[in-house]
Amino acid sequence: MTKFRVASKLPKDYEPLDDNVYMSPAMLLYFKKKLKMVIRDQIIIEGLRGYQVEDYFIHQEIQECLISIEKGSYGYCKKTLQPIGIKNLIINPLIKCCVVDDP
To answer: What secondary structure letter does DSSP report for 67?
Structure first.
């Protein structure tokens, strides 16, 4: 399995929308950090209200996204293999498919 290069450090002013290369090493690191923040937030929520069944699925989704970053498939639609889009991923870093119009 090929491991894709993820940047080791992100510039403080990094903005993925300004990056000209889709899923560049810096962009992958940005989303990896964003996903880890989702994990942290989820743990805080679980602590406040208690663990619920849907929490397991969210954790699983996050882990799948982190693995897809390492594989190099993060940011691409599972159905069409087309880029999902930076704006969509910023809004929802767990998104795995893009919207496709059915004929």
So the answer is: H
pLDDT per residue over 47-74, tens digit each?
777 767 677 788 899 999 999 999 999 9
Count of domains forming the chain: 1
- Is residue 9 included in any domain, yes or no? no
pTM over 0.70: yes
Query: How many angstroms separate the CA atoms of 9 and 31, rounded?
Result: 13
Integer Cα distance of 94 and 74 in angstroms: 10
* Residues 23 and 14: beta-carbon distance below 8 Å: no
Its domain, for residue 32, covers: 16-91
Reduce the DSSP state of residue 97 to 3 states and report it.
Answer: coil
